[in-house]
UniProtKB/TrEMBL annotation:
It is a multi-pass membrane protein. This is SulP family inorganic anion transporter. Residues 419-520 form the STAS domain. SUPFAM superfamilies: SpoIIaa-like. It comes from Nitrincola tibetensis. It comes from the Bacteria. One of its GO terms (biological process) is transmembrane transport.
Amino acid sequence: MRDYSISLLKGDIFGGLTAGVVALPLALAFGVASGAGAAAGLYGAIVLGLVAAFLGGTRVQISGPTGPMTVVFASALAAFGGSFEMALAVVLVGGILQIGLGLLKTGGLVRYIPYPVISGFMSGIGVIIILLQTAPLMGAPASASPLEAILKFPVSLSLLNLHAIGIGLLTLAIVFLTPIRISRFIPSPLLALVLCTLISVALDLNLPIIGEIPTGLPEFHLPTFTLSQWSLIFSLGLTLALLGSIDSLLTSIVADSVTQTRHQPNRELIGQGIGNILCSFVGGLPGAGATMRTVVNINSGGKTRVSGVIHSLFLLTLLLGLAPLAAQIPLAVLAGILIKVGIDILDYRLLKLLKQAPRPESLIMASVFALTVLVDLVMAVGVGVVLAMGLLTWRVAKEADITFDTSNSRYPYLDKANPGTRIVHVKGPLFFGSTSHMLDRIETVDKVVGTQQIIFDCRKVDFLDLTAIFTLDDMVARLHQRKIRPKVVATQEIRQQLLQMNTPNLTESIIFADMKEAME
C-alpha cells in the first residue's frame, strides 16, 4: 500500500461498487434459496467479503455466497430439521477445516483434482439450482431437495400462479437478452431485480415476496450441536471446506490469468476459513471466492484489496438503509436470477465434447453429475476422486511390462552355464496395480520343467511401492519353499530401497546390481 495512488483508489471504488451491485441480487437470492432468509445472504456477503479482502491471498478477489455453498448449507438446514444453529455449526466446522487446509499448505493440490470430477460436480450443482428454483418461479413453495422437486413437479404445476410465472419469465428474458452495452453500466441481474419489483408493486400483483428483512447489524448466533449429530456435522463441514476451497482457488487462478499476477493459495484458504467462521457467529451464509463478481471487479478497475472492502461496505450501507425496499422483491424474480446462475454454472465445454472425450472420463463425469443431483454432494466428490484414481492406476499398471523368456534368447549361453535358470524381465512401474501381473508370470515360470533358479531382472523398473516390495518378498519365500533359488537384479537405487526395508527374504545375498554377477 506504500505506492497506493489516487488512480488506484478510483479504480478500486468503481470496481468495488460494481461488484457490490452485482452481488446484491445474488446475495438476496442465495439467502432465500438456502432457507435461512434474504438477510443471511447479505450478512454472508458482507462479512466474508470484508474478511477475505483483508486476509485472503488474492488481492482482487470478491468473496460471498455462491451456488454450490448455498446448496450444501440448504442441505444442512434440511438435514437438521430447520435448526439454524446446527446448520451454523456446519459452517463453523467448515471454516476451521479451511484454516487447517491452509496451515497444512494444501492450497496447491486443487490443481490435481481431475477435471471430469470438477465438471460433473459443477454441472450437477447447476442442475440442482435450476430444479430447486422451478417451483418458486411458478409461485409454488420451494422443495428441500432436487429429487423432491422432481417428484413434486405435478403439484407445483397445479399451484401455478400466473402473476409469478409472468414476472419470472420477464426476469429470465432480461437476464438473458440484455445487450452487453447496457449490462456494462448496470448488470442484468440488478436491472431485472429493479424493473420486475417495480412492475410487481405498481400493478399490485398477487405473488409471494421476500417479506420483512431485519434492519441494522446482525445479531450474535452461537452454533450448537449434539454428539449424536457430530458425524453428520463434520461430513457436511468437510464438504463446505473442500468445496469452498476449490471454488475460491479456481477463482484465484482465473484472477491470476486476467491480472497476470500470482495469488497465495494457502493464505487464501486461511482468509476464507476465518471469514466463514465469522459468518457462523452472525448468521451469515457461507461462501467462497466468486468468479463472476471477481471478474466484474477487475474489469471495472479494481486492482487492490480496497475494492473488496468497498464491495462489502456498499452492501452494509444498503442493509442499514434500504432493507425495507428489498422486502417487496418477488420470489419469482430471485428464482429467475438463480436459474440464470444455474445455467451459467453448467460446464458447456465438456458437455459439447462428450462424444469426442475418452469414454472413461465421460463416465466419471456422468457418475459425479448423477450422484450430485440425486444422492449426496460428499458421496459424489468421493466417488469421483476414487474412480479417477482407479482409472489412473489402471493406465499406469498397463505401462508395466513383465515378460518371461522361456528360451532365454537374450542370454544364449545361459542354459549351458546355468542349466535350469529362468529370467523374468520387469520393466516400468512396479506397484500395487501391477504386482498381480508379476504373480501371474511366476505361475508361468513355475510350470516350466527343470526350473532351478529364477532371476528377476528389475533393472528397468521405474519405481517400487510398499505393496510391490512385500509381494516380491513373499514370492522369494515361496520359491525357497519349492527349492528354487531366487535372485533379483536391480539398479543401485532400487537395490538400496529393497535393502532398507529389511524384509526377511530380500537379503543382500540375493540382490545384485549386475546380471553377470547374479549368474555367477
